[in-house]
Amino acid sequence: MTPTDKPDYYAVLGVPTGADPARIKSAYRKLASTCHPDKNPDNRHAQDQFIEIQQAYRVLCDPARRARYDHSLQSGRPEPALLQKSRTMIDSFVKNLRAAAGNWPRRGRDLRYSLSLELGDAARGGRFRLPVGDSPLEVTVPAGIEDGTRLKIEGQGDPGSGGGNPGDLIVEIRLTPHPLLTRRGPDLHCLVPVPLPTAALGGPIQVPTLEGPDTVHLPAGTRDGGVLRIPGRGMPQTGGDPRGDLVIAVKTEVPVGLSAEMRKLLSSFADACGTQQFPEVARYRKVLDSLLILP
Length: 295
Hints:
21% strand; four-stranded mixed β-sheet; three-stranded mixed β-sheet; HSP40/DNAj peptide-binding domain; 4 domains
């Protein structure tokens, strides 16, 4: 064996020649964990690399062996007896490990499935069929379940080996967005556009609910951004707690595309109004008039 044929144990572990024992140990642990036969049962290259890593660490972790190895690198003299002994011991260890691994009980892998639900389905809950594996499975979804919740069905994952238990099926709930309703905890929120006359005069407006469209009364004089809270029309809650609320935010819509007659009527209406009809405007003007004007 020539110096160029000599294995470079420092390069095998990815450390410099003068690395301290702590760094050598840390590098060995990382590499051994990656190349361990248990993690690479069908990868011969990784298994051979594991043997080489073990061999390098056995030499470099022992001060006396490392000194002889460093001396051999400098003098160009190989250590065939030591290398052969190390390889024989490591080969025996790996063979025994592989033989034992075949008899160890191993738990099967968990399977994961993403179940998409409409907001109404999530509110009602119930049993849902999952097309997993050869035969469909059913999962029970509690009423009011939240987005991102994970349900575990024990024993429905991959089968185990060597007498090990099967894995579990992990079902992750994903709620599809509702076109009008947004969930915030147990409450449902909705932005409802309301014509200006309805906001001023009050009257019935239609709002979305989990049970379908419903009609509620809008109080007269409701301002833009006003909120109506309808108790018990939100999402169900677990543990017997009451349902959340339906929260309606009002967006007052100003009319567009006015005809001449509409403009005339609106102008007459504006002329008939006073400060009591627009208290916010009156307060604003009062503050504005109180501001000092710079010379």
